[in-house]
Amino acid sequence: MSPDLSRRLLREMMRIRIVEETIADRYAEWKMRCPVHLSIGQEAPSAAAGLVLRHSDLTVSGHRAHAHYLAKGGDLPAMIAEIYGKATGCSGGKGGSMHLVDERVGFMGSTAIVGGTVPVGVGLALSLQLRGKDDVVCIFIGDAVLETGVFYEAANFAVLRRLPVLFLCENNLYSVYSPLSVRQPLDRPLERVAKGIGLMTVSGDGNDVRACHALIDGAVSRLRGGAGPQFVELSTYRWREHCGPLYDNDIGYRTVEEFEAWRQRDPIDLFRGVLRQEGTVDDAWMAAATTALREEVTAAFAFADSSPVPPAGEAFAHIYSVEP
Amino acid sequence: MSPDLSRRLLREMMRIRIVEETIADRYAEWKMRCPVHLSIGQEAPSAAAGLVLRHSDLTVSGHRAHAHYLAKGGDLPAMIAEIYGKATGCSGGKGGSMHLVDERVGFMGSTAIVGGTVPVGVGLALSLQLRGKDDVVCIFIGDAVLETGVFYEAANFAVLRRLPVLFLCENNLYSVYSPLSVRQPLDRPLERVAKGIGLMTVSGDGNDVRACHALIDGAVSRLRGGAGPQFVELSTYRWREHCGPLYDNDIGYRTVEEFEAWRQRDPIDLFRGVLRQEGTVDDAWMAAATTALREEVTAAFAFADSSPVPPAGEAFAHIYSVEP
Amino acid sequence: MTATTFAAAIRDALAVALELDPAVIVYGLGTTDPKGVFGTTLDLHRKFGEQRVFDMPTSENAMTGIGIGAALGGLRPVLTHQRLDFALLSLDQIVNNAAKWRFMFGGKRGVPITIRMIIGRGWGQGPTHSQSLQAWFAHIPGLKVVMPTSAEDAKGLLLASIFDDDPVIFLEHRWLHNVTGDVPPGDYRTPLGKARLVRSGADVTVVGMSLMTAEALHAVDHLASQQITCDLIDLRTVRPIDWPMIEASVRRTGRLLALDTGYETGGLSAEVVAHVTTACWKHLRAPPRRLAMPDVPEATSPALTEHYHVRAEHIAQVIAEVAGRPAEWASLAKARTHPHDVPGDWFKGPF
Amino acid sequence: MTATTFAAAIRDALAVALELDPAVIVYGLGTTDPKGVFGTTLDLHRKFGEQRVFDMPTSENAMTGIGIGAALGGLRPVLTHQRLDFALLSLDQIVNNAAKWRFMFGGKRGVPITIRMIIGRGWGQGPTHSQSLQAWFAHIPGLKVVMPTSAEDAKGLLLASIFDDDPVIFLEHRWLHNVTGDVPPGDYRTPLGKARLVRSGADVTVVGMSLMTAEALHAVDHLASQQITCDLIDLRTVRPIDWPMIEASVRRTGRLLALDTGYETGGLSAEVVAHVTTACWKHLRAPPRRLAMPDVPEATSPALTEHYHVRAEHIAQVIAEVAGRPAEWASLAKARTHPHDVPGDWFKGPF
Ligand SMILES: Cc1ncc(C[n+]2csc(CCOP(=O)(O)OP(=O)(O)O)c2C)c(N)n1
Ligand SMILES: Cc1ncc(C[n+]2csc(CCOP(=O)(O)OP(=O)(O)O)c2C)c(N)n1
Ligand SMILES: [Mg+2]
Ligand SMILES: [Mg+2]
């Protein structure tokens, strides 16, 4: 992997981390008045996917979409403004954190019904195939999506038609406060189910961003080569509460030991260590990158905070193409 | 296999065949005024399952349920009366061919939405497990059910909780007039998908009733032994049109050659040949059995035909436990 | 102009749309099979290719979402369900995605999908093959809901639906597939949201849709010969509803009968009565009435459907009651020659 | 009697049911987690065991069918969805199986399942976490639909629902979870189908349910001090509706305002207006009115929900219009101290 790509991967993870932590820090101002699902601790898959995919590739996602949106090239100030409920938000304040969009970079939408965008992504892939494009669609999913019937229905059709779809699964072991054990048989890895429905599958360490990049890059290459739909499972961990800004290891659905073990494997720390050792980044690079990112994020929040709220009438607009 | 069991298997297939053919013959009288989905040609799986299952085991099914109902011990006159829309029908004329029930023998219901009874069967299994019974639930499904999301959702839960469920799949290659090729990737056998979701699977020749019996018996034994949910795929073929009494090889969705090849492998002819050779049945037995079955069926149709129609008010009854 | 059946008019509209716009795709269970969804899609794949006209797995939910995604990708998908009942599996996609996409992303992009659903009835369709749930779709902001009655409207409204930029639920009554009418050739479109005045009269405003308009027409014509005359309004689209036409009529007649092919309680006829009552209060001279399906599912036995559905004679009776005038209606039932559980002699089961 | 919250009353009802009848099972996403579905199921699994109280996969459709099967197997399942919106995935099972089982098998067996669905609102719940689709369920023969307003009714109606032999959709408004009231201990049941007269008065009949009753109560009491008095009827169950109580009231007041937490078009308020208009025509002295959610989804931004929901001041205004009397209502809005997008100061997001 080139030093440049390595640095971009690290930088992308840092950027996501800083954005998400800033949201967490400022949530208690009660200006972001909507549910937020943060990706702190699980930045690697997004960063890797973002650097594999082209802008003309398409992406859809679910409730935990900030990282996907940013990595795909989504407009940061517009995302923060959306969370603030402002007119300048990427969805005009209509959607909030759970409904992001930036079509200019192929981020076609994230929605809050678990599994809800999976067939939408497959349908986008159908449109690409019918139009003869060699772009691909990346559908970000969590481990719970493998419990939804629509995933199997959509995957079956994708396999049937050899559609250019990547199912990118971030397995963070939990759905809200429910561990995998109450939802899926533990002796049946997610990857095996995906293989059963006919997807080509690989899996790996979701906290090792280089591994993530290699797996996603391989899958996307196969896709562009016409090999049919791909499934990549990346194991990772969410640090904060399912929804909201806080830590919740005290409430008892997971152990502090488990959390600490994963935090020891902070994807950013790990990769920074590697790159330091390789000499790809040094303290000066880190400091400069951090400063630049913080400035960008601060500016985005300032933009969001100072943006106007949407006019009241907007609440009633955009139901139909031509308002009655 | 004991001679007695062999004869019962043959007799059960003959019984189903005679019932279904009588329905087909008499459909043009226009007294059976509802869709009928016949199982002619694919009697073996039902006959085998019926002889493996106990009366206290539970069964659910779909639109093509006559054979399942009969094999499980369902009341023949009540079924014919139901198809005739009579008050004496097993569902009081409310349900018709697609909605059969006979709880006394564990036939808990068949309904017409593809996949619709799959979770119902799993829920019945949950109730058995919670009540500590060692009965099992047999869910009859067709090949199209593996395209429905609810199958995967229900199977996942069955695997998660090790429920006593047998998914008995009659793969007859078609869903209405649609071959498997437009619905599922041909290089992905149904059994593999079922295995992927975590079911224990076997598959075999659905026109060889002894093979069917062995596979189903093995699966049910494993179930009673607590091995968790089972999937049995049996390859077979429907002779008549998807819905209705006629042959439809002329309309072009399948070839006459294919049909003839399957008809050569008539499960009844095949097994009769074997039993003759073994000396288990002879002409006299065949003649006696046929006569007895024909008499039974004739009586059932006479019962149905002469039964009263439900009183008009019944159309508005049974919406709630206590009529308002 | 050619006299064609409703089913042929649907097929004609699909062919015109496929011809006009390469973005149009047509799919659904049985679309390419030898029956072609009651003839409505017959052989279209031969002309337009299996890439654009295709069968699908029994995966109603995902295939709806796939249509939505395809629409977001620039296509104009037409998805068909052989029964409305099967589409209940896909309501999450219809309501949470198709209907809301434009709104929830601030107007960025709409979902120009058309979802045809066929409403079954009679010949033992029974409880799971006969539901007429237009009230559900009409309750959802973001959806348009179309219910044609005539062959001409079937074509004109379907073309308008396909080229509409919003998601449209297009409900075809199985019993109308064989009605015939003069259908204009080519790219013929009927605007969504405009009702059709089928008959005009002075005494009662009768509002119907789909098969109810067809039944009402018999009733209205029958009563006309007894000097009770009606405005018969065919809604055509049940969301949006053409309130100006209805209100103008009720202001003249002062009397309303709202018909519905769906259940009475919480159905469309409630909306029509509620809206008209509030909007035309001063003009109403008698209590508005509704006549809809009873609040029970359709049973399978023909003995149980005989007195279940609303037919011309019932409509005539209630019109007379609303008008407060004596009338004869029993002969309407007697005039029917075919059994009550089939739309006509052409129909011989099994579905 | 103890003053408890609505949420605690729900939990109390579940505990009583689990205690009373070993056939009762309670499940749904998060049922056994440390938050226990907003406290409504908290720790029940510790007392009654994980066999009877359990979490589930994100498989709303199958888990509904599994509940139906369990009910057919003799259990009394209670399934909870943290948002009604998620239950859209399960409508096939609810409508085609639960609602129709008794009918389509000729009365052989019913499906005694209770499905709790929580209706979200405010704090950016947005378009996919805030739908109030009771009109859909109330349209379906075979379903009962319950919408409690008070803590007492939450308990009484939930116990009645669980032990009812028909499928019940039990809708809890998230904004009511923290209201308190005196709740009788033990096996306390409130019959389904009977409305509650919350206030009695002479001028207008106000019909509400769930959060709308709570808002209306402020409005009605506010107007009472201005000599406009109302019958305030809390429906409690929206299928069946207690028509005798409503009709008797309208026969006295001659005026009707129907409220709804759901969309106006095709909503429950249309049913109430349509039914009352036809049934009480002679007694009506003014056009009946409805006041419901506007026909658009809920947006996420608080700026966009501020003038979206129906609140006490709007209700007061329309009551005064219906009564044809001048009144002051603006002070109702000013009296509210907490932001418009939370039910009270106790609520601090995130959901
Ligand atoms: C259909 C549906 N059911 C339930 C929910 C509630 N819910 C919101 S997020 C979530 C967890 C999903 O878990 P996973 O897919 O693993 O993603 P993660 O939150 O771990 O990133 C659930 C169950 C929902 N939004 N949609
Ligand atoms: C959800 C749903 N979609 C479509 C249909 C229409 N339909 C009725 S039977 C059938 C075929 C099912 O095929 P399969 O499961 O293989 O059973 P078979 O008819 O071959 O016995 C279909 C698609 C339906 N009843 N339900
Ligand atoms: Mg997860
Ligand atoms: Mg088949």
How would you characterize this protein structure?
The complex is a heterotetramer, with two copies of chain A (324 residues) and two copies of chain C (351 residues). With 324 residues, chain A is α/β, with parallel strands linked by helices. Chain A has a single domain (3-307), classed as Thiamin diphosphate (ThDP)-binding fold, Pyr/PP domains (Rossmann fold, 3-Layer(aba) Sandwich). Helices cover 44% and strands 11% of the residues of chain A. Chain A contains eleven helices and eight strands. Chain A has helices at 3-27, 44-52, 66-71, 76-83, 118-130, 149-160, 190-196, 209-224, 256-264, 267-278, 283-306; strands spanning 58-61, 107-110, 137-142, 165-171, 174-175, 178-179, 200-205, 230-235. In chain A, helix 8 links the parallel strand 7 and strand 8 (230-235). In chain A, helix 2 (44-52) packs parallel to helix 8 (209-224) and helix 4 crosses helix 11 (283-306). The longest helix of chain A is centred in the N-terminal third of the chain and has 25 residues, at 3-27. Chain A is globular, with a radius of gyration of 19 Å. Chain C is an alpha/beta fold and 351 residues long. Chain C has two domains: 2-183, Rossmann fold (3-Layer(aba) Sandwich); 196-334, Rossmann fold. Chain C contains 13 helices and 14 strands. In chain C, strand 10, helix 8 (210-224) and strand 11 form a beta-alpha-beta unit. Chain C is globular, with a radius of gyration of 20 Å. The site of one magnesium ion has 6 residues of chain B, from strand 5.
Question: Key terms for this structure?
Answer:
heterotetramer; A: 324 residues; alpha/beta; Rossmann fold; six-stranded parallel sheet; two-stranded antiparallel ribbon; 11 helices; C: Rossmann fold; 2 domains; seven-stranded mixed sheet; five-stranded mixed sheet; 13 helices; binds thiamine diphosphate; binds magnesium ion
How do the strands and helices of this protein lay out in sequence?
The complex is a heterotetramer, with two copies of chain A (324 residues) and two copies of chain C (351 residues).
Chain A: H1 3-27, H2 44-52, E1 58-61, H3 66-71, H4 76-83, E2 107-110, H5 118-130, E3 137-142, H6 149-160, E4 165-171, E5 174-175, E6 178-179, H7 190-196, E7 200-205, H8 209-224, E8 230-235, H9 256-264, H10 267-278, H11 283-306
Parallel strand pairs in A: 1-2, 1-3, 3-4, 4-8, 7-8
Antiparallel strand pairs in A: 5-6
Helix pairs in contact in A: 1-2, 1-10, 1-11, 2-8, 4-11, 5-6
Chain C: E1 2-5, H1 6-20, E2 24-28, H2 44-48, E3 53-54, H3 60-72, E4 76-81, H4 91-98, H5 101-104, E5 114-119, H6 134-138, E6 144-146, H7 151-162, E7 168-173, E8 180-183, E9 196-199, E10 204-208, H8 210-224, E11 230-234, E12 237-239, H9 243-253, E13 256-263, H10 268-279, E14 289-293, H11 302-305, H12 312-323, H13 330-335
Parallel strand pairs in C: 2-3, 2-4, 4-5, 5-7, 6-7, 10-11, 10-13, 13-14
Antiparallel strand pairs in C: 1-8, 6-12, 9-11
Helix pairs in contact in C: 1-7, 3-4, 8-12
The complex binds thiamine diphosphate (2 copies) and magnesium ion (MG) (2 copies).
